[in-house]
Write a structure and sequence with these properties.
Elements lengths: L1 E6 L11 H4 L9 E6 L3 H13 L1 H6 L28
Antiparallel strand pairs: 1-2
């Protein structure tokens, strides 16, 4: 499994759509993106189910405790078209 978090440092508004428009970015905010690469979709589904049942994570999902507006968050699953492995 591979996991990464990143904060935008060159994320410009687009003419039709963009990250800032998709999340209704405010002037004092930054776009953040995360992704996880799983060995298989089955692994992803199994791990996601376990995460949703974790009591500590459930407690952190209380909107009053989150450091961001979770209603503006979105996610999805993707299948790799072209993949590059990091150099070792």
């Amino acid at each position: 499994m591979y996991f990464s978090d990143a904060a935008g440092d060159d994320v410009q508004p687009g003419k039709l759509t963009s990250f800032p428009q998709a999340v209704q970015l405010k002037d004092d905010e930054v776009v953040a993106v995360s992704w996880v690469v799983y060995k298989s979709r089955e692994d992803r589904d199994r791990i996601a189910a376990a995460v949703r049942q974790d009591p500590e994570l459930k407690a952190q999902m209380d909107p009053s405790k989150m450091p961001f507006d979770g209603q503006r968050m979105f996610w999805g699953g993707f299948q790799t078209i072209v993949g590059l492995s990091p150099a070792h």
